[in-house]
Write a structure and sequence with these properties.
Helix content is about 30%, strand content about 30%. The chain is an alpha+beta fold. Helix 7 packs antiparallel against helix 8.
Amino acid sequence: MQIITKEFDCAASDTALRDVAPLDDVIYVDIETTGLSAERDVIYLIGVAAHSETGWKLTQWFDDDGNGEKDILTSFLIFARSFHVLLHYNGDRFDLPFLKKRIEVNSLAFLTADHPFPEGLRSIDLFREIQPWKQLLALSDYRQQTVEAFFGTGRKEEASGGELIRVYRSYLAAPSKEQAQQLLDHNAADVEGLVSITPILGLRDLFAAGLAVTKAQADSYRNAEGKLRTEIVLFCTLRGGVPAFRKDIGVMRDGCAMNLSGSRVVLKVPMITGELKYFYANYRNYYYLPGEDTAMHKSIASFVDPSRRRQATAETCYTRKKGSYLPEWDRFREPFYKQEYREKIAWFEFRPEQKRDRAFFNEYANYVFRHLVDPGG
């Protein structure tokens, strides 16, 4: 067995962990195995990162002769007993079950009797943490390296897990420093990359912090059909600080658009200027007057010639109003209007006095922003 250590820097993780646990209570882990079956295959390399007085420290346990799995597991488990929070990437599905099984196979449960592994540690799977934001981030895939690139590590590695297994087998047959270094470098890059994407933990707080509007304006444009359209453009800053993203985020949803670049956010929201319909709730109490294209309560419409009225339905129980309107999805303002009864998006009246009301724009910008970034939306 070989034990390799080295130090590396990753200040972004220090900030991201501040609300999770003290730095000296946290350990990151990544394993390398000879296959996917915890019953038949073995662990030949374990890499962890833990914080020290001088920064982050990588420790690797390497089975350099093919017979040292029990030794590297023993050393790792003794090391891990000092920590209470375990971070990993997709480890819930692979690393942790694999480790647990190999601990059992090697009869090492006695080492975890008073500190069960991984049950005795608070486990945080960064892969699961990023899942709610997949639609927002819109990455090509969610492999660790892709997420790392988004957060700016710039790591590029072509070797696949299967290729590294072949490298390890070749190393056991004819050991060479070059092959050993390739295996160690791959694991080191995985562990250091894991630490670098810790800001995933801050995404929810970052987006929950909200926006401050610095400028609002109305713009006109022609759509693909050549029709003139109007939109409100809100220029904002992100109260949660500057996200550590390497690229801008663009989102389009329900006719709205958002661009996030650093701490700057631009929201574009469609505006309707014209006539919309207000639908009454109790349509059975109304008549619909086709000639006027409006609904009227029966207490009044009972005096209208019966030939000019008919029982209103949910779709015809409305009155019309001209004005300027902005969209809403869960009753931001009342009363709300629609173009048609079954339309999912509702609209509220954008009144002249609101055009000079910064508090209104701040409230509405945050409402639209949270609609666009809502992971459950």
